[in-house]
Specification:
The structure is a homodimer. With about 270 residues, chain A is an alpha+beta fold. Chain A contains seven helices and 13 strands. In chain A, a hairpin with a 2-residue loop joins strand 5 (about 95-100) and strand 6 (about 100-105). Chains A, B: Its EC number is 4.2.1.-.
Chain lengths: ~270, ~270
């Protein structure tokens, strides 16, 4: 922690393992968008095993919102299926700790919070499908504008378990019709990162009353020849878990994801 | 021709070869929707070889509107790649003959019109993708209403050859957003029958000013929670050829297609 912080440009040069080592050493505490050289970034949810077992059922029932990439054994801080030496206690730039559903702290490391019964979940993220969309020549307005993607609470119920349930959160990207048709085809081939959209067109049909005021992220303008395209979003499980107020839940801070060794084009 | 006509119900029982034999014998002169037991039905265009060579280039350049299933050798009346003993002079229930772009006759047989330089084209048709849509639980309103699908001239230019060119004709099916997303995925896997849609949403963006007045086929109502989905249509090549006024062009009469031996699920 006494070394100087690294610049974003320096970090962009780093392969995933070296990047995680820099993050674990405390040299970077920011967002991971654009880092990791084409590797999968994951949403993180960490829960005590009692809640973890139920959350695993919830993810299984709601795969489009919660595509699981890996789950740890209780007490084991290593993701064994996402790459080399991925220690969830250190490898995320910034965490959020929720106690009984309330945000209590935003640490850079969770070593001191680790418990023998904690289970960590890595959940696929739409960053992985944005690169194939860009590679297909589809412009993504939030990227062009340097903004976070716009996300909205919908009126679509997810499939509940005993204590976990709630509405689906979606991310929205405005596109011309031809690009939307192409984006549906491309993302349908990537079920581990949310898959095909859940809705296109009129936002009010899924309970979104104004696209100008997203519930998470930043608004982007929509042109008259564009159609809004909505994908299930990895914010859903976080929002659902917080609403159920488990005694302890740790997540990544928004935008500060876990960078894995998996290639985006292979999920 | 002196045998009694067969009922539609009798014809539905017939496998493709027996159905074609009944048609060739003059026992049926109607539309083929619902006949052929799940086999591919084809749009037919027949041209003298001079025009045929250019039409083949046109189809190659405009594959989404003109997906070629088979082409005959000049003067050969048999489609060799679509099934057993398919004689294009007899096997279509009803033909249309255009001379210099004008409809001149609607015969049941073109034996007497056959020439040594005629080339026949079999072009994929959206009937083939409607069954997989229905099998996926997607309602098709024109079928529920017993109507022909609605088709529209657009302002989208096709890729021209020297003498052939014009605007794309599309078929339109209204769907709820979730069904539209699914239909895009299903039809994208069927490039030989028009593939993915060319447009979704606002019809005015492709030059269609009123969905209530289709240029071909029948209008269907669109509910407020439905989105219009537009596919390239096999009427495009017919419309383009007629506009160029070749001395002779023979097509199937609308809805009276060639029933082949190919399975819909294999194209």
């Amino acid at each position: 922690m006494n070394q100087p912080a690294l610049s974003f440009e320096q970090l962009q040069q780093r392969a995933p393992l070296a990047l995680r080592q820099s993050i674990a050493a405390g040299h970077y505490q920011g967002h991971t968008s654009g880092l990791g050289q084409g590797r999968v970034q994951a949403n993180i949810v960490i829960l005590p095993s009692d809640w973890a077992n139920e959350f695993l059922r919830y993810c299984t029932l709601n795969r489009q919102a919660c595509p699981l990439l890996d789950v740890t054994e209780p007490g084991d801080p290593f993701f064994r299926n996402l790459g080399t030496a991925i220690d969830i206690r250190h490898d995320v730039p910034r965490y959020r700790v929720y106690r009984h559903g309330e945000l209590s702290e935003e640490p850079l490391d969770i070593e001191s919070l680790w418990q023998d019964d904690l289970v960590a979940f890595a959940i696929g993220c739409s960053f992985s499908f944005e690169q194939p969309l860009l590679d297909a020549g589809i412009a993504l307005k939030h990227i062009d504008l340097g903004r976070n993607v716009a996300m909205y609470q919908t009126n679509i119920d997810t499939r509940p378990t005993a204590r976990l349930g709630g509405k689906l959160v979606v991310s929205m990207r405005p596109m011309k019709a031809a690009a939307a048709i192409q984006a549906i085809q491309i993302t349908a081939r990537m079920p581990n990162v949310h898959g095909a959209p859940v809705h296109i067109g009129d936002p009010s049909l899924i309970g979104i009353h104004s696209l100008d005021t997203p519930d998470y992220g930043d608004a982007v303008p929509i042109a008259t020849d564009e159609i809004p395209v909505f994908w299930a979003c990895g914010v859903t499980p976080q929002s659902v878990v917080q609403a159920s107020r488990p005694p302890l839940c740790i997540t990544h801070a928004p935008g500060c994801m876990l960078v894995t060794d998996l290639w985006n084009s292979a999920v």
